[in-house]
Amino acid sequence: MLGIASELCPRGLGDRYNKLMVASGVPSARRKLARALMHADSLRAEVDDFRAKDPYEFDIKSLGNAPGEPDFRVLVKVARGEPVPESWSLMTGDFLTNARAVLDHAIYQHVRAQNPAMPPHRIQYPIYDNAHDFASKTSGRFSTNVLRLIEDAQPYQSADPSGHPFRILRDLVNIDKHRDLVVANYSIGEFEITPNDLFEIVSTKAFVQAAMVPGATVARAHLRLVQKVEGTRPMQFPCNVLYRETIEIPGMADPGGLLQAIECVKGALGPHLDDLEAAGC
Predict the structure, then answer these.
(1) Is the dihedral of CA 91, 93, 96, 101 positive or negative?
(2) Of the candidates 219, 218, 225, which has an alpha carbon nearest to the alpha carbon of residue 202?
(3) Distance of alpha carbon 76 from the chain centroid
(4) From 26's CA, which of 13, 83, 198, 202 has a CA 20 to 30 Å away?
(5) What does the alpha-carbon distance between residue 184 and residue 254 come to, in Å, rounded to a whole number?
(6) What predicted TM-score, i.e. pTM, was given to this entire model?
(7) 59 has which bridge partners?
């Protein structure tokens, strides 16, 4: 049957097939990049809408002052907190899937041309944490120029491998394949309280990375009376706790900024895609 098929094949079709096999994967990668950017923009718009709703209210509880002492302390707790929309993790996953595809599409045709016998399902842009794994698992897949470029872009080449955009992309994509991404809001260590004619601010402290959920203590303040107060008197403590949207990233002790992580990955993809094209992908 193979011989018959070969005889029936019009002259020149084999050459055309070979040309298709070495066609650049970059145009397809650019389409995936455009899709990834669309999901990133949609997520940012939803985050902005969420922030605009003033989703958090705080309850400040005074611990009181000792008799004759002007100093007292207050605790700040979340009184009301809107849950983070479930759509955020889904949109993040859509961004990550397309971002990963940018790299895979970019090198796919190149690897097929360098190693036609390689099964297509095994072709994936390599992202490794050490030089040994990279060398042992990329042999025979890339031209010299492309291999050098990809090796320079590996996480282990960075001064901060845990914060490398491709390491973040790889690990978050792997999580998204098997379980939900953990997206939440956390305080970021900035706390403002408005003084009045009754007290002055001695010091403030926000609890960094405190989850913004009802009942959570997110800050405290050391205040000092500047006027004598007779008996008990209700006091108002207008305040503001700054927060950011976070995502749990493997290898990082604290959750990373959600939008910051996406911007980190976005910022690396475009220039690297340009470099891959220039190198022969």
Answers:
(1) negative
(2) 225
(3) 29
(4) 13
(5) 12
(6) 0.83
(7) 77
Nearest to 22 by CA among 146, 139, 166: 146
Report how far residue 99's alpha carbon sits from residue 170's, in angstroms, rounded to the nearest whole number.
10
Instruction: Give the Å distances, CA to CA, from 82 to 47, 92, 97, 242, 246.
Output: 12, 19, 28, 15, 15
Which residue bears the tokens 């099964």? 119
Beta bridge partners of 62: 74
Model confidence pLDDT, tens digit, residues 24-81: 999 999 999 999 999 999 999 999 999 999 899 999 888 788 888 899 999 999 999 9
Please state, in angstroms and rounded to a whole number, the distance separating the CA atoms of residues 263 and 93.
Answer: 14
Decide if 207 contacts 230 (C-beta within 8 A): no
What the block records as the tokens of 132 is: 């040994």
Q: Which amino acid, 84?
A: V
Q: Give the whole-angstrom CA distance, residue 179 versus residue 264.
A: 22
Identity of the residue numbered 133: D
197-242 pLDDT tens trace = 888 999 998 888 889 999 999 999 999 998 876 656 566 778 888 8
DSSP per residue over 183-226, as a string?
Answer: EEEEEEEEEEE--BTTEEEEEEEE-TT-B--TT-EEEEEEEEES
CA distances from 153 to 28, 29, 109, 165, 252 (A): 21, 17, 19, 10, 20
The owner of tokens 């006091």 is 235
Phi, psi of 78 (to 5 degrees): -75, 120
DSSP SS3 for 234: coil
Q: Where are the domains positioned within the chain?
A: 25-279
pLDDT of residue 64: 80
